[in-house]
Amino acid sequence: MKDFMMLFHSEPNPDFDPTPEQIEEEVKAWQEWMGGIEAQGKLKNPGEALGFEGKTMHSDGTISDGPYAELKEIIGGFIIVSAESIEEAIQLGKGCPALTSGGKVEVRDIMLLDGM
């Protein structure tokens, strides 16, 4: 088994003002999707949702406000799953609620460094 990180991308929508019911539906969809992965014994880390506040440090020493100043999309969160291959990890990503709202799921392998 190998570990893979799923990063959830979406485009920011400053006009989005969900109702409490919409928030509840969204949370339920995420819980059901992640619960299905967990039931298979493949959810290694449920990750966290990421906020909108942040700063970016650049190699030249400058700091810019907001992690998304130069981007048109945001990373809203992540989870870590265990799978035999990246293809299996992609299969686990199907049904992700981010996909139903026009977002993307980026699947990346996690490199293990010996001795670290």
Descriptive report:
By secondary structure, this protein is an alpha+beta fold. The protein has helices spanning 20-39, 86-93, 97-100, and strands at residues 2-10, 43-49, 55-57, 63-65, 74-83, 104-109. It has a 4-stranded antiparallel beta sheet. Strands 3-4 form a two-stranded antiparallel sheet. 12% of the residues are buried.
The neighbouring-strand order within the major sheet is 2-5-1-6
Rounded to an integer in angstroms, the radius of gyration calculated over CA atoms is 16 Å
- Mean pLDDT, as a whole number? 88
Shape estimate: flat
> How many angstroms does the end-to-end distance come to?
19 Å
Helical segment count: 3
The strand count comes to 6
Secondary-structure topology with pairs:
Elements: E1 2-10, H1 20-39, E2 43-49, E3 55-57, E4 63-65, E5 74-83, H2 86-93, H3 97-100, E6 104-109
Antiparallel strand pairs: 1-5, 1-6, 2-5, 3-4
How would you sum up this structure in a few lines?
With 116 residues, the chain is an alpha+beta fold. The protein is 28% helix and 33% strand.
Keywords:
single chain, 116 residues, alpha+beta, two-stranded antiparallel ribbon, 28% helix, 33% strand, flat
